[in-house]
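Hi R.,

As promised on Friday, here is the backbone we talked about, encoded as C-alpha cells. Could you run it through your design pipeline when you get a chance and send me back a sequence?
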C-alpha cells in the first residue's frame, strides 16, 4: 500500500514539473506584433454637442375671468381647438348683499317715481287735449315721465347686473362668459363647475380658467453648458429628437441664447430656444422631452484619419507612416491636426490622401 502511494506521489510531482516546463516554454516563445492599418481619406468632420430640454409652444396664453364668481358651466376641455372669441366657460355671479340691497332699493324708488310721473302724464295729457293747459306745460310733464321710465329701466338693469352679472341688452357680451382671446388648442382647463374664481387685479393674478396655445408654432427649450455656449450663434441649424416619437429628427433653427447662466448641480448652464420646423403631418404635444443635436463646427472634404492612430506628445502630434507591409515597418512623422469628432480627426499638414498609418496593435503567436 505504501509503495502505491509513493508511486502516485512521484507521478504527481512529474506532472507538476512537466506543466511548469510547458508554461515557461510558451512564455518564452517569440511574439510577432502586427498593427491594423488606417488609411487617410477625404471626408467631413463635425463637432457636435447635445442639449437636453423639452418642446413648448412659443406663446401659451392664460385665459382669466373678467369678474369674480362661481363656474356655472365649462364648455371646452383640454385638446379642443378654439377660435378667438369662443366661449370656454360661464360664471355665476355671487351678489354682494350690500350692493344687492342698494340696487333693490333703487328699483323701488324708481318704480314709485315712474308711477307718479305716469299718473301726472296721463292727467296732463287729458288737460292738454281739452286745451286746459299749454303745450309747454304738457311737454315738461312728458319729459319727466320719459326720464322716470328710463331711470326705472336703468335701475332694473343694475339690479340684474348685481344679481346675475347679465342685463337684457348685454347678455351676448356679458363678462360672465369667459372667452378665448386667441385661436389655438386648449392645453389645460384647471377649473370645474362649482369652483370659485376671481378676476385679476392689483393684488392677485386672478384664476386661470384655461390655457391656450398654437401647437403649430413650437420651440425647443433646453440648456447648454458654459464650455460650449460660446460656440452657439443665433440662426445656426440643429436637429431635435423627441423621446416619445421614435426615428424622427425635426430640423430647427436657434433663436435665443440666454445672456445669463444658472448654476445647476455645480455646473453653469445657459437657456437656449430653437424654432421647430414641423411638417403638417406631425402632431407634437406640448411638454415632450427632447434633445437637440447641435453642430458646433464642421470641416468638409478634408484629410481625416482615425483619432486612435494619432500619438500625442506634449504639444506635438505624430503618426507612424507605413513604409513596408511585409514585414510591417513604420516611420514616425509629425503632423498638424484640426477638428475632431471623437472618432475621426482632421489632418491639416503631414499626410496626403490614401497615406497609410499604424493603427491598433494585433498580437499573433508563432
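Update: got your reply. Pasting your designed sequence below so it's all in one thread:
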Amino acid at each position: 500500500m505504501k509503495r502505491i502511494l509513493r508511486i502516485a506521489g512521484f507521478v504527481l510531482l512529474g506532472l507538476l514539473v512537466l506543466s511548469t516546463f510547458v508554461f515557461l516554454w510558451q512564455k518564452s516563445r517569440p511574439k510577432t506584433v502586427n498593427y491594423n492599418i488606417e488609411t487617410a481619406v477625404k471626408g467631413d468632420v463635425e463637432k457636435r454637442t447635445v442639449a437636453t430640454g423639452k418642446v413648448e409652444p412659443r406663446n401659451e396664453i392664460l385665459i382669466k375671468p373678467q369678474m369674480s364668481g362661481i363656474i356655472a358651466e365649462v364648455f371646452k376641455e383640454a385638446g379642443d381647438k378654439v377660435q378667438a372669441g369662443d366661449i370656454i366657460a360661464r360664471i355665476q355671479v355671487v351678489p354682494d348683499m350690500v350692493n344687492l340691497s342698494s340696487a333693490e332699493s333703487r328699483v323701488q324708488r324708481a318704480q314709485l317715481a315712474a308711477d307718479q310721473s305716469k299718473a301726472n302724464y296721463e292727467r296732463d295729457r287729458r288737460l292738454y287735449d281739452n286745451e286746459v293747459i299749454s303745450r309747454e306745460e304738457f311737454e315738461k310733464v312728458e319729459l319727466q315721465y320719459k326720464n322716470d321710465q328710463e331711470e326705472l329701466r336703468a335701475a332694473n338693469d343694475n339690479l340684474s347686473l348685481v344679481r346675475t352679472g347679465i342685463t337684457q341688452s348685454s347678455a351676448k357680451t356679458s363678462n360672465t362668459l369667459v372667452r378665448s382671446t386667441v385661436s389655438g388648442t386648449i392645453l389645460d382647463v384647471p377649473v370645474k363647475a362649482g369652483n370659485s374664481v376671481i378676476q385679476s387685479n392689483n393684488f392677485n393674478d386672478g384664476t386661470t380658467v384655461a390655457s391656450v396655445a398654437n401647437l403649430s408654432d413650437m420651440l425647443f427649450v433646453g440648456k447648454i453648458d458654459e464650455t460650449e455656449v460660446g460656440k452657439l450663434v443665433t440662426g445656426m441649424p440643429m436637429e431635435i429628437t423627441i423621446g416619445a416619437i421614435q426615428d424622427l429628427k425635426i430640423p430647427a433653427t436657434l433663436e435665443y441664447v440666454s445672456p445669463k447662466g444658472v448654476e445647476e448641480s455645480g455646473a453653469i448652464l445657459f437657456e437656449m430656444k430653437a424654432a421647430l420646423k414641423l411638417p403638417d403631418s406631425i402632431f407634437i404635444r406640448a411638454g415632450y422631452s427632447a434633445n437637440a443635436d447641435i453642430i458646433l463646427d464642421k470641416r468638409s472634404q478634408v484629410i481625416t484619419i482615425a483619432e486612435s492612430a494619432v500619438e500625442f506628445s506634449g504639444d506635438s502630434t505624430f503618426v507612424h507612416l507605413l513604409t513596408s507591409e511585409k514585414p510591417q515597418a513604420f516611420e514616425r512623422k509629425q503632423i498638424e491636426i484640426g477638428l475632431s469628432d471623437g472618432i475621426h480627426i482632421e489632418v491639416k499638414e503631414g499626410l496626403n490622401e490614401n497615406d497609410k498609418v499604424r493603427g491598433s496593435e494585433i498580437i499573433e503567436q508563432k
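One thing I noticed while checking it: The first strand starts at residue 31 and ends at 39.

Thanks again,
M.
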